Amino acid sequence: MRVKQYKMRSLTVEQGKETCVDVDLEFEGSRAFVVWDSITVGTAMFKARVEIDPALLLKEGGRTWDFFYRGELVLPRPQNN
Question: Residue 34: CB partners within 8 Å, gap ≥ 6?
């Protein structure tokens, strides 16, 4: 299945304050994923992705992003793992 890649902006809470975050966004069919982190090992690329609700995406981009996410974006933090 072909993966379509875009940029996304969302509000998130970091250290008790709301802030904007820009992340990579991928679509696989009707499913949407935020790319939280990626690493290349040799010729392989591994991605940590978080699935989001595509119904909450607005297709209105800025200069650096294609979609705005209206849902609550909670990304895992390395210190919590």
Answer: 8, 10, 23, 24, 25, 49, 50, 52, 69, 73, 75
Nearest to 67 by CA among 9, 14, 4: 9
CB 11 within 8 A of CB 19: yes
Burial 12-45 (b: 16+ CB within 10 A, else e): eeeeeeeeeeebbbbbeeeebbbeeeeeeeeeee
Name the 3-class secondary structure at 29. Answer: coil
Kindly report, residue by residue over 63-76, the tens digit of the pLDDT. 889 999 998 887 76
The whole model's pTM is what?
A: 0.80
